[in-house]
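Now for one record:
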Amino acid sequence: MTTLMFQVGGAWLLAMALGVPLFAAMGLAAYAFVLLGGLSSDIVPQKIAQSANSFPILAAPLFILMGNVMNSAGITQRIFAFATALVGWLRGGLCHANILASVIFAGMSGSAVADAAGVGTLEIKAMRDEGYDPETAAAITAASATIGPIIPPSLPMVIYGVSADVSIGGLFLAGVIPGLLMAGSLMLMVAEVARRRNLPRHPFPTTRIVWTAFRDAFWALMTPVVLFGGMITGYFTPTEAAAVAACYALFLGLVIYRDFDLRHLPRIIVDTVETTGVVLALVMTAGALGWCMSLSRIPQVIGPALVEAIGNPLLFLLAVNLILLVVGCFMEALAAMLILIPILSPAAAQLGIDPIQFGLVFVLNLMIGTITPPVGVVIFVTSKIAGISFEAMSRAILPWLVPLIAVLAAVTFWPPLTTWLPNLVMGR
């Protein structure tokens, strides 16, 4: 059956190249494997249903709903104003504020696209109004948006945890230090660019200005504290945290800030359902195709072959980085995860690589892919917001890949960056 799976896989890749939607291509590939293998066709819908029957996957629509509510309730404006009050006085102040706002928003949305489309809209407009060229504004916004899925909560980490059977709470904790390192490395690069270009800065704020911005944003800033604190203390699981987050966002919009119009709720729910539908369609059909791969022993064949060919854990991680960075240039991150996790994670386990570290390496690679041409979804979003061509955006983003790849290298070479905090909190 291994040969049959390779043949079906080749047809599946050809179908994607011809423009067949990914979920449809995966579902058809699973059906082809079952029928050509002489198995009952009833297996495929059963496996699709089983893939959706997952408690952790419930976090996905709830985190998406929370991000949509936050954007609609004006919470992102308060976050950006607070970030500007803190770091706007630095040379290139709005660039620094852009990155800091993304760090704060990362603790709420867990999505690079949500960050770019939400707070990114405000950031790009503010930077252009202050005289920054649109390419710089869009590039920094796109680069900082990659922090969103690394600092918890994180939708890609939920998907990774479900697919690879790794603790989602452990993955969330592991993302804190790398996420902060990403922000720090981007801010260091901003400092250098600002010095060379003599970028503008705001006057040093008075204590009153900082206090007013903090007071206005306080309840929004408490979102990560509520989520993270609840998960660490064991009051709720990561999935339950998503439900708490969605309710908290509604509470802020309706009761605290009173900027949320209930008439917008049906549209927000429809948007959430549409986004969730895309995610679940991929997850479910990938589950069926993954079962076919398992039955055909593809992971059991490729995994040991990789282990035997490479042998060294560090060389394996470097090879995985190269593979994922290339794949991220051409494939949407979630799709790449669902396809490659069943193949690469067993090989990593055989080499003794910590599953938490490998999960962070996996997700970080693919988040960098979201801002890498030619299929970087985040650079599509930011180029549209900034009103520049995709080609101009692709050129502008290239220097900002350097600090992110530097953090990826650090995470790859030094496991404690990802394992220390989970070990400390969870006693792993």
